[in-house]
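Exercise: predict the fold of this chain.
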Amino acid sequence: MKRVCVDAVMLESRANELAARSIKGETKRAWIDLAISCIDLTTLEGRDSPGRVRSLCAKARTPLPGSDAPSVAAVCVYPNFVGIARRALDGSDVRVASVAAAFPAGQSELAVKLADTEQALNAGADEIDMVIDRGAFLSGDEHRVAAEIHAIKGRCGDRHLKVILETGELGSYTAIRRACDLALEAGADTIKSSTGKIGTNATFPTALAMCDSLAAFFRRAGVRRGLKLAGGIRNTKQALGYLAILNETLGESWLEPGSFRIGASALLDDLLLQRERIRTGHYTRPERIPKD
């Protein structure tokens, strides 16, 4: 697999130009609904509880009671809450995702990572969000990184595997592109930017670098793989910027929950507020939006 050297200045200029494109009118409302339907509504905190997970699942099913707002794509929780989420989402189209593989650091032996993954799968997870060992990647042990992805995908079978690269720790766009290419070749169904647990998370240039890798993989292998952006995406303007980058680089066929996800919690509320403003001409009362 050929290494790609990324021109940082060109990438940043192009990404910021694409993300700044104005989205208005019916297109804006349609893209807001699209963004809602692509959210992995997420709670990954030490204070998580069964009650909080059930509340999050209720909000995932019906983001704004009394409206026609779509449900989100998935709820993402720790493995020990998968069973609770599974029962709370029964009968809906909302999927259950779980972080695994020694999230968020990825610093554990493969046997532990596989056991972590199996716990989530056995409890009913539809999707696994695994994190790579960045230490191994940055020290040049790409074989270990690829082997772990391959092994965990083997345990997932036909269930969806998202591979978290933690791009904010990789040091350069060239390294980010290399990590994307490596993960895709090793079997990732989706490449994901971040855990949301460090200071630098998703950015427009990072998203563009990931899209370029997905486009190259599609040309090379003829297989469409997905993108998930996570960490720090809190408002509608940001979400629409990412959709614009995806649309311009990968095309309209990627604009659906099977190929694109946003890992977020606070974002959903702002999307709902903006949606209601477009629909009615004024913002809805914040108390109408369910608490998570």
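Check your answer against the key: The chain has one domain: 33-288.
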